Amino acid sequence: MSQVEFRQVDVFTSEPFKGNPVAVVMDARELNSRQMQVIARWTNLSETTFVLPATDPNADYQLRIFTPGGELPFAGHPTIGSAYALIEAGIVQAKNGTLVQQCKAGLISLAVSENEQGQIAIAFELPEPNFTLLTSEQTESLETILGCQISCGFTPYLVDVGARWIVAQTDDAEQVLNTTPDYAALKQHDLSFNATGVCLYGYYPESEFTRIEVRSFAPTCDVNEDPVCGSGNGAVAAFIRRHNLSLPIDGKIQSTQGQKLHRDGQLQLTITSDAIWVGGQAVTCVSGYLTY
């Protein structure tokens, strides 16, 4: 029997049990792909990550990311949670406030900062998105499956950022929270697009385009609803920029996610013409060893 260090980190929160947990296997050099998938299925979290030495000289470490159903080239909250775990354990150190993660989607830049209370915040730069516009027939089908009305004039896109999210906007945050998808139909729908899932978002009316509510549905990954999704929020930010929607002067949008799952995820999206950054805090809830 062998052991490997393991941590479970809550992401997009500074309060334990309020964000989205990711399981982090801190040194996966002795594990093969089959073992990684078995562990990810066992943790039954939306993602489990496996840390490996970087093979690219420009990266600080390498990360493989698994859902219970398969491997992803990139995912947001596992990126932030894994970086937090590695910093906390002293395995990596930010250089001039920067880390570089190697994953199947390429090299991901991370910005690391610390507030006056000593709390670490980490933001990742979204990989360059690719867009596929949905047809009117596909949009109507999506509305039926989600059971909500999609905002007129903002046609949904399939946004590929490594994870492939179909993004749609509703009239407001309340509609997002009241949506009850047909998950069986949604799974078949997403499989036909080779999509990770669907991200639905809407603005809070009093926010003047500075605060949104997001929900991320991913039944193809055996996760009907991801509590707080970094890549999904990044895809939403890319959708907002693609449609030239209103932005605050500083380009910052506060995103909340997870209310329907009794979470309180808090994310900051920063949107410029050159880059999209998705950031938040994290906290370790479990640390120990896995025996295999």
UniProtKB/TrEMBL annotation:
<protein>
    <submittedName>
        <fullName>Phenazine biosynthesis protein PhzF family</fullName>
    </submittedName>
</protein>
<feature type="active site">
    <location>
        <position position="47"/>
    </location>
</feature>
<dbReference type="GO" id="GO:0016853">
    <property type="term" value="F:isomerase activity"/>
</dbReference>
<dbReference type="Pfam" id="PF02567">
    <property type="entry name" value="PhzC-PhzF"/>
</dbReference>
<dbReference type="GO" id="GO:0005737">
    <property type="term" value="C:cytoplasm"/>
</dbReference>
<dbReference type="InterPro" id="IPR003719">
    <property type="entry name" value="Phenazine_PhzF-like"/>
</dbReference>
<comment type="similarity">
    <text>Belongs to the PhzF family.</text>
</comment>
